[in-house]
TrEMBL record, chain A:
Entry-linked Pfam families: Ribosomal_L17
SUPFAM superfamilies (alphabetical): Prokaryotic ribosomal protein L17
Swiss-Prot/TrEMBL GO biological process terms: translation
Entry's Gene Ontology molecular function annotations: structural constituent of ribosome
Family statement drawn from the similarity comment of this UniProt entry: Belongs to the bacterial ribosomal protein bL17 family.
Name recorded for this polypeptide: Large ribosomal subunit protein bL17m
InterPro entries: Ribosomal_bL17, Ribosomal_bL17_sf
Keyword terms: Ribonucleoprotein, Ribosomal protein
GO cellular component, one term: mitochondrial large ribosomal subunit
Domain of life: Eukaryota
The species this protein was found in: Spodoptera litura
From TrEMBL, chain B:
Keyword Ribosomal protein set for record: yes
Gene Ontology CC annotations of this record: mitochondrial large ribosomal subunit
Protein name: Large ribosomal subunit protein bL32m
Places the protein is found: Mitochondrion
Biased composition (Polar residues): 179-188
Assigned protein family: Belongs to the bacterial ribosomal protein bL32 family.
Functional description taken from the UniProt entry: Component of the mitochondrial large ribosomal subunit (mt-LSU). The mitochondrial ribosome (mitoribosome) is a large ribonucleoprotein complex responsible for the synthesis of proteins inside mitochondria.
Pfam families assigned: Ribosomal_L32p
Gene giving rise to this polypeptide: LOC111355642
Amino acid sequence: MNQADVSKLVSKLRVKVLPRHRNLPGPKGPEGRIDKLRKTVTGLIKFERIELNYNRADEARQYAERLISEAIRHGDCHKPTMDTADFWLLEKELVHKLFKVLVPRYESTNLSYTRLYNAPRPQYGRSLDKVVLELRGNPYPDLLNNKSNNRLLIQNVLLDAAKNEYRQTKIAEMAKNIGKVGATQNTDSKINEAHEKPNIS
Amino acid sequence: MIPRFTHVLQLMKNVERNLFHMFGYHPPKELALAYVHEKKPVAIPKKFSLKDIVGDGFLLAVPKFRRTIEKKLKRKFGTPEYVWKMLVPKNDIKVCQTCGHHHEKRRLCENCYTKIKKETEEIQGQIKEKLGINPIEHDVVVLYKGETLPDQPKEFWKGKRIIEMKKERPQWFSKNLLEKTTQQPSKSTDVKPTDLA
């Protein structure tokens, strides 16, 4: 019972972590693997959006998440965290970026700090699966801009205009028939039908 | 009786012939068999070599054994569980909600992605150019040509690096229909022909 709570010793990552690491085989062995991951983490922090092979991206993503979460937890006055940052970031000006830009950016979020998208595969030929790895809140255009529910999408604008026009004609018709008994009820139901037409989604 | 007599006769004939032989009475030489002595060289058995058959030509490899029907079919069509070589329809193609091109399910649309990738690389280049060798201490805000900072309190903009792109914001559809689009109107002076046919 006199044990430390493990969940408080290590930052819980907000991405899925596989039960076993990937070896990322190469002539240099495990050392080479760490070298590759350091390069990738550095690139990710530097450019905020990179495209690379799935295995390496997924592996590097976990280390980047861990690095950022440690930086948020302990701040820049904590020696071990600083050493970790120094180890993982090969370009030393990025240590400043980590503590001065990324920590404020992600302090109050409860989402993961990075995102991983599957990049399109070439139609012909064989190739490894590519992915796009990016930091959240980057200044680049959004990769998933699904605007189907956006009222400013051209289809929605046109549909709205068509609906409006239909409604106007119906109202004009109604105004014409005002006073005539029995005609008003019919037009009312038609207007209701027009209202129920949904947007494209 | 007669066989015994002929046998005795035969014996006597043999004896007579042998006696004549002993004393040098041979049959005349003209009746002798002609014999020519000839010493043939002994043929050394030659080793078999393909060159004798092929000469200047060449041989192609040929199968030694017949391939069984099962193996033939496996080679031709594969195995459904492992490698199935037949053409099978792909059911995970979706239509992009943004541009209408087709893309694989759970993957980015290629058309949109190439567009965004190009833009991203431009912004990255601009950031790198603007920053130089200074330490990265501020977040980046990207502004295009003719754009102003959005409405935010002044503290929000304090310590932000503003990167200005030297072109207009790429927009395939602007917010307001009356607003100027980024695409320039056509300047072509081609006149559509009339009175044809």
